[in-house]
């Protein structure tokens, strides 16, 4: 699938095998080897993932991840073990906090995991099983049925709020969405077509970068935590699998 090569990670020195998978997923060993290679992997309660336990809509499934309890997080991957496109997002926080809200597709009952890599190369993993009726990756998006997707392709909407997080710390919260069908290529007669890269800057300085795949929801939406008090103009630059580039700006 498009973007698969972008989520392959460079392997480091060999480490001892990770502890047995607490979720006992039939796909964990294969997915872990493909994504993490010989990097050290630990199951860590300091990584938090918040999801509904039941997917009421498998086409738009909300996920919130939080790795702020870890030191010096360099990269975060969301892994959906049993989806045909198992990595919806590969997130490099940069100046943003290692915290992200997003919406993905689920194709069946599956573990949903978050893996955060710290500066020493270790991957810290947390996850849980989610029940889903299935078909999230193999049904056409609503915009295809409405026929209006091309008219609004690449439109960006967003807003910035200044406030506090759940612990009372000051944060600047950015939420934005972009119109895009995010086709998986698993629907008859509809080829794969999805956003591939997203870059968020403030005053020209990179805040965060993401590599995304077709297992993100149609019209994907993202929420990020920027440094407290950030007031510079924000630019969201995106590129999709057809080479089209889109830019959104927030004052």
Q: Can you offer a commentary on this structure?
A:
Helices cover 7% and strands 41% of the residues. It is mostly beta strands and 251 residues long. The strands form two sheets. Strands 1, 3, 5, 6, 8, 9, 12, 13, 15 and 16 form a ten-stranded mixed β-sheet that branches.
Key terms:
single chain; 251 residues; mainly beta; Immunoglobulin-like; 6-stranded antiparallel beta sheet; 3 helices; globular; disordered N terminus
Average of the residue pLDDT scores: 89
Q: What shape does the CA trace take?
A: globular
CATH topology: Immunoglobulin-like
Structural class: mainly beta
In percent, how helical is the residue content? under 10%
- Sheet with the most strands, sense and barrel status: 10 strands, mixed
CATH class: Mainly Beta
* CATH A-level architecture: Sandwich
In the predicted model, the low-confidence regions spanning at least 5 consecutive residues are 1-15
Strand percentage: 35-45%
Radius of gyration: 18 Å
Number of helical segments?
3
Fourth-tier CATH superfamily name: SoxY domain
Number of domains: 1
End-to-end Cα distance: 36 Å
Q: Care to count the β-strands? A: 16
Order of helices and strands: HEEEEEEEEEHHEEEEEEE
């Amino acid at each position: 699938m498009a973007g698969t090569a972008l989520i392959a990670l460079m392997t480091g020195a060999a480490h001892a095998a990770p502890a047995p998978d607490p979720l006992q997923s039939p796909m964990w060993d294969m997915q872990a080897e493909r994504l993490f290679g010989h990097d050290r992997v630990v199951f860590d309660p300091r990584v938090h993932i918040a999801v509904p336990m039941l997917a009421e809509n498998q086409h738009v499934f909300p996920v919130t991840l939080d790795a702020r309890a870890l030191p010096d997080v360099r990269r975060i991957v969301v892994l959906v073990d049993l989806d045909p496109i198992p990595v919806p997002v590969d997130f490099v926080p940069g100046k943003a906090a290692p915290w992200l809200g997003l919406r993905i597709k689920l194709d069946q009952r599956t573990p949903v995991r978050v893996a955060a890599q710290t500066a020493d190369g270790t991957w810290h993993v947390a996850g849980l099983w989610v029940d889903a009726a299935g078909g999230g990756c193999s049904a056409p998006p609503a915009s295809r049925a409405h026929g209006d997707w091309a008219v609004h392709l690449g439109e960006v909407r967003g807003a910035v709020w200044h406030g506090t997080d759940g612990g009372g710390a000051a944060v600047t919260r950015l939420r934005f969405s972009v119109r895009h069908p995010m086709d998986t290529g698993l629907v008859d007669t509809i080829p794969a077509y999805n956003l591939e890269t997203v870059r968020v800057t403030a005053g020209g300085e990179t805040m965060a970068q993401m590599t995304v795949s077709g297992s993100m929801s149609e019209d994907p939406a993202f929420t990020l935590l920027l440094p407290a008090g950030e007031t510079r103009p924000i630019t969201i630059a995106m590129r999709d699998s057809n080479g089209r580039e889109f830019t959104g700006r927030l004052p």
